[in-house]
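Lab meeting, item 3. Inverse folding demo.
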């Protein structure tokens, strides 16, 4: 008897969610929010070993122009760390990131020069930049975009392990614009739109 009542309840709930009505739409959105926020992301965090398993690139600091890494290496920052363009040949993300790319992030284990890490910079949003130095668990990074990152921010020069969120594994291009489009109006004029 109890099983029949439970099955009847689930059938009525399912039928309600299938309706073409505003109440059904709102309830479906609430259920989707709860599942994504309290099941999907915690599960993904557990599996990846990162507190932030997916990030959306919100700036052009890792954007590559037509010359790619070659243009980036015109900055003296790389020379300061004893790196040359030849050192970059085996690095991941040779084409950098564009604004709106979604980056899949894993735990920051075995970070090496050339890896792309996500870290807290004591600002509202974490940074995602390339590692240029690793010494005794302290990292230095630099963004690949030669136009916006000719130098290094002071917060990039001494990144302790407790500030690491994770390491970039792969990207899905432009999918993040589905979210960014709602926040572009609040960006400064020089940060609006696609990277160029």
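The presenter then showed the designed sequence:
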């Amino acid at each position: 008897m109890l099983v029949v009542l439970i099955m009847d309840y689930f059938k009525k709930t399912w039928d309600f969610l299938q309706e073409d009505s505003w109440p059904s739409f709102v309830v479906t959105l609430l259920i989707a929010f709860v599942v994504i926020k309290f099941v999907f992301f915690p599960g993904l965090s557990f599996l990846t070993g990162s507190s932030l398993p997916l990030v959306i690139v919100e700036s052009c600091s890792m954007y590559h122009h037509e010359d790619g890494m070659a243009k980036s290496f015109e900055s003296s920052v790389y020379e300061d760390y004893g790196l040359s363009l030849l050192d970059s040949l085996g690095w991941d993300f040779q084409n950098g990131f564009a604004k709106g790319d979604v980056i899949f992030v894993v735990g920051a284990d075995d970070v090496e020069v050339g890896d792309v890490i996500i870290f807290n910079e004591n600002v509202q949003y974490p940074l995602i930049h390339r590692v240029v130095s690793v010494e005794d668990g302290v990292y230095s990074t630099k963004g690949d975009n030669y136009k916006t990152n000719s130098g290094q921010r002071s917060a990039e020069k001494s990144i302790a392990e407790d500030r690491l969120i994770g390491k970039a594994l792969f990207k899905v291009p432009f999918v993040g614009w589905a979210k960014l489009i709602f926040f572009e109006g609040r960006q400064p004029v020089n940060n609006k739109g696609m990277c160029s």
